Every structure is written in structure tokens, then in C-alpha cells.
Amino acid sequence: MAAPKGTKPPGGSRKGRPNKITADIKALAREHGAAAIKELLRIATAAENDSTRVAAIKELLDRGYGKATQPISGDDDGPPVLVELRRTIVRPGHSNR
To answer: For the CA atoms of 65, 47, 30, 70, what is the dihedral angle to 10 degrees?
Structure first.
């Protein structure tokens, strides 16, 4: 049985709340984010190895534009695995049509 809303479940903090270590790591990473981006840019433009340059460019683009979406597909001859995803909100006592 789930704990009542707003209460602390046994053995941990509330769901979705990052723990202190995770929060500390994220804060530290953000402090060095600008330097990391500059280093990725340096690697992307100066590395002699093409695969190193491509990896650095990919990281820069992922951070600037977000990661590319991954298509969902089934067999080459068959229909896609996921045809449609629909979310319907129904109010109690009302028809959903």
C-alpha cells in the first residue's frame, strides 16, 4: 500500500526528490559546464582523429539542441511496434466521448 501523499515512505525520501549526493554532483557539473563546453569545442575543431572530432561535435549538438529522437519500428515487413499513443483525461461522472 502506498504511503499517503506528502508523507515520507519508509526507508527513503519522497519519490522524485533527488538525494543530496545527486544534487551535489549536478551542482559541481554546472560550475564547470562552461569550461567543459569550451573543451569540447576545442576537441571538435582541433583533434586529429575524425572519430574524436565527431564524438565532440555530437556532444555539443546534444547539449545545444537535445538528443535526436529514436524512431520506433517493428519488423521491416510488419507494422510499427507503436502505432499510436493516446492520453485521455476523463472527469468522473462525465462521458469521455
So the answer is: 30
